[in-house]
Amino acid sequence: MNSSTIEDARDKWRRRSGPFAVAFAAWLGWALAAILLILRLGEPGLLLALLLLGGLLFFSLAVLLLVIRREIWRQRRNDLGQMQRESHQMQRENLQMQELVWLSSRVSPRRPLPFPLYKTGYEAALDVLIAAWELIEQERPKRVLELGSGLSSLVRAYALEANSQGTLQSLEDSA
């Protein structure tokens, strides 16, 4: 365990133990007040001590309900944040799937393209591949020079082939 984990555990324990410390202090105060009232007043002091206990119990219940309400709202807020993060992730994945379907419907490869893309950090994103396809489709260039080869080279070559014109030259610095 690192020190931040230990500190987080301590803070969590302090947060959760706070209401118990308050309840214990209130009980101790009531017990001392009840003893003093009974010693000074006798039987009427016992009645006052019981009334004091009733008020203390009512107050404690109110505090407990407020703590529970706060925890419920904190949990709801955390759940809502988690749901929003998951929703955004699903939207990104849905958009990526739509882009993949769009690109797959345009490219007619003679052999399967390397989908899903291997995440090496150097591959072109789907939106870049789609933009390259659309640019070649619209501009109809006679020559395309590409620095670095890979899936983007295949997509550009198929785009040039779909236009029935143009050549692609790719320069690659690695084996």
Notes on the protein architecture:
The chain has about 180 residues and is mainly alpha-helical. The protein has 2 domains: about 5-100; about 110-170, no CATH class. The chain has helices spanning about 5-40, 45-105, 125-140, 150-165, and strands at about 145, 165-170. The chain has a two-stranded parallel sheet. Strand 1, helix 4 (about 150-165) and strand 2 form a beta-alpha-beta unit.
Structural class: mainly alpha
Please indicate the percent range of residues in DSSP E strands (runs of 2 or more): 5-15%
- Total discrete domains: 2
Termini gap? 44 Å
Number of helices: 4
Give the biggest sheet: 2 strands, parallel
The proportion of residues forming helix, as a percent range, comes to over 70%
**Ranges with pLDDT <50 over ≥5 residues?**
none
- How are the strands of the biggest sheet laid out side by side? 1-2
Order of helices and strands: HHHEHE
Net shape: rod-shaped
Q: Average pLDDT across residues?
A: 80
In total, the number of strands is 2
Radius of gyration of CA atoms, rounded to a whole number: 35 Å
Topology:
Blueprint: H1 3-41, H2 43-106, H3 126-139, E1 143-147, H4 151-163, E2 167-171
Parallel strand pairs: 1-2
Short description:
The chain has helices at residues 3-41, 43-106, 126-139, 151-163; strands at residues 143-147, 167-171.
Question: Can you give keywords for this protein?
Answer:
single chain; about 180 residues; two-stranded parallel ribbon; 2 strands
